[in-house]
Write a structure and sequence with these properties.
The protein is of the alpha+beta class. Helix content is 30%, strand content 13%.
């Protein structure tokens, strides 16, 4: 299924009676020679936020 498909992924999602923007977390790494010394902690934090958001609002991410 292509990215942006309204079946699974898209710019918005219906939650109850509200149409909401989906969320996306972008975490940089130091894999390409860039200096991001705390990227692993940022990644862990994003995973915790994703889990909580999905508990509260399924399909928001």
């Amino acid at each position: 299924m292509p990215y942006g498909s309204t079946n699974t992924y898209g710019p918005s999602v219906q939650i109850g009676e509200d149409k909401c923007a989906q969320l996306m977390f972008v975490i940089g790494t130091d894999g390409a020679g860039l200096n991001h010394p705390n990227w692993r902690e940022n990644f862990k934090f994003a995973l915790m936020m994703q889990k909580k958001a999905n508990e509260m609002y399924p399909r928001i991410i």
